[in-house]
Design brief:
By secondary structure, the protein is α/β, with parallel strands linked by helices. The chain is built from 12 helices and 14 strands. It is globular, with a radius of gyration of 24 Å.
Amino acid sequence: MSRLRCMLRGIDIRICIVLLIAIPVFMFGIYLHGQKITYFLRPLWESPPKPFHEIPHYYNENVTMERLCHLHGWKVRESPRRVFDAVLFNNEIDILALRWNELSPYVTQFVLLESNSTFTSLLKPLLFAGNRHQFKFVEPRLTYGMIGGRFKKGENPFVEEAYQRVALDQLLRIAGIEEDDLLTMSDVDEIPSGHTINLLRWCDDIPPVIHLQLRNYLYSFEYHVDNKSWRASVHRYKPGKTRYAHYRQSDIILSDSGWHCSFCFRYVSEFIFKMKAYSHTDRVRFPHYLNPKRIQDVICKGADLFDMLPEEYTFKEIIGKMGPIPHSYSAVHLPAYLLNNAEKYKYLLPGNCRRESG
């Protein structure tokens, strides 16, 4: 007992109090901001991916296709290749309308697969099937498929995503795709520009697989993030070899080839559904992230829905992108269908951040 009393006398009671307060506060801070800390320290353990070989993109509506192919180092064909545009559909009705109207003059067959399950095994309505009447202009060229979800709770969402992409491979064969046809692989909101697809279908000697560099937007065309969207790709189809995927498949990328408008929804309810439904569901760390008022405030500020730091590989790029996205008031070189129907799609244009509740 005397030895214990000596030890207690040697401990400053103030230090004990500070430790009793500081340790729980520190642990709570880690709980709240652990993901931010991890993202900020990412450059310490993860190197940037291998850079793409970027092909300059030449285009002007007054330049002939023969000249444009020549500027890219390719020859012009006697007739264009057939083009198949294939997508997995979730709930992006408006963005799908922009996409298909942009690509319609150049696409031979539109291929769309819809499931009654999200990647996170949530039951969802067949929204395309219910709105199919809006897309009569592509009906003669549409191959539509529906696949039932497996609804395996607790499974990694990327497993369900891969399952649906395999089903899309089968749907492409049903659509009649053949060797050397062009196949676009991209999410609905990754929209190649029409003149990009027209260039690739008319030019010979293009790469077997080429990624498309897209202008990256968030919430609408008011928030231009960067020009680093690269997952969209175009393939010269090879039976038995080409597989529908959404990851890097080539080291070649064509500059300035379209638009990626992520989380570009009309209704706040659509934001909530997407946040709960897509593969990165772990990013919804707290229930209040789904609060409609919070979501509306985040959209108008150009902030991050998940309160995350930028996913970059250098401290310079992380720090440079911290904070809200600057507002852009340029609506130059956006999809023609969007501008021709500006009243209907006003929420996608600069200066219109307020969303309908839905």
